[in-house]
Amino acid sequence: MHAVVYHGDGGKSWDEVPRPVIESATDAVVRVDAVTICGTDLHILRGDVPEVSAGRILGHEAVGTVVAVGSGTTRSVGDRVLVSCISACGNCSYCKQERYGLCQGGGGWILGHTIDGTQAEFVRVPFADRSTHLIPPDVSDEEALMLADIGPTGYEVGVLNGGVEPGDTVVVVGAGPIGLSVIQSARLFSPSRIIAVDRESARLDAAQRFGAVVVVDNTHDDPSAVVRELTDGLGADVAVEAVGIPETFELCTQLIRPAGRVANVGVHGKPATLHLEQLWPRDVTITTGLVDTSSTPMLLRLLQRRLLDTGRFVTHRFALHEFAEAYDVFSRAGDTHALKVVLTR
């Protein structure tokens, strides 16, 4: 088969590699029918995730068809499944709390990280019962694919960790796919307003389509001044960091009111300054986290009932072997206006 193989120092290529086989009773091998590229993959290529070694197949989200199963899984050959970005052993103390991202039994974020991932013609999925989800027949591959990572990440790490409540003012810094996912799922909790901050006009336009009522281009306008003006000088109830650079994290801590909440979602490759000398008397809460994907079954139900619209994330489509072009388009989102790219068999 062929797969996107990481070669270190930012290098990758579409290489011929051995097809995966069942290695454990709880495994399933899935034929990849649709796959996407994540911002985290770009972080890997930039060297922000040094745990990823040369020779690793990239990717951690896919939709596909089960072609082989171990003796210890209830999945069946022919099942159409969503491959989650998080794998869960189901037995450790964290999995029993549904905190699958912290799995201590060999799971967590492993696909495309510590084991071979999904940007391939076939992928081996450990702990298949908890790491794949059956897709309802009335949900398309593209719609389901958006719930492999960005859907639950925006909901869990942004909205739930941020404690969004009815009537809140929510600021989302970064209107890429994750930020847009935060905006879409925050609307489920009826905030009074959602404000999006970004440097790209196309992404701010997308933020308005997804539900932001105010957008701020921080190349021209001061986000702090805009937020203060809209909140009687207090600041936002919740600020979600969805970029992953020190400047945007520090901006979020400046945008919130006393007793406000900062939810960091972005993947950081460099240290960020935490101004405790300013924050400590203001009762500020800061959360971090890797997605658990415990919400994926619920999000699939919302999608099936058309209470979520995940298909709108997809802006570019490619054949499976066109990974070089897809990576180029996705990495130049400012020029190409890409949100999510989808590659299909």
UniProtKB/TrEMBL annotation:
Its cofactor is Zn(2+). Belongs to the zinc-containing alcohol dehydrogenase family. The lineage of its organism: Bacteria, Bacillati, Actinomycetota, Actinomycetes, Micrococcales. It comes from Flexivirga endophytica. The keyword Nucleotide-binding does not apply. The keyword Zinc applies. This is Alcohol dehydrogenase. Residues 8-343 form the Enoyl reductase (ER) domain. Transmembrane segments: none annotated. GO terms for molecular function: metal ion binding; oxidoreductase activity. SUPFAM superfamilies: GroES-like, NAD(P)-binding Rossmann-fold domains. Keywords: Metal-binding, Zinc. It comes from the Bacteria. Gene3D superfamilies: Medium-chain alcohol dehydrogenases, catalytic domain (3.90.180.10), NAD(P)-binding Rossmann-like Domain (3.40.50.720).
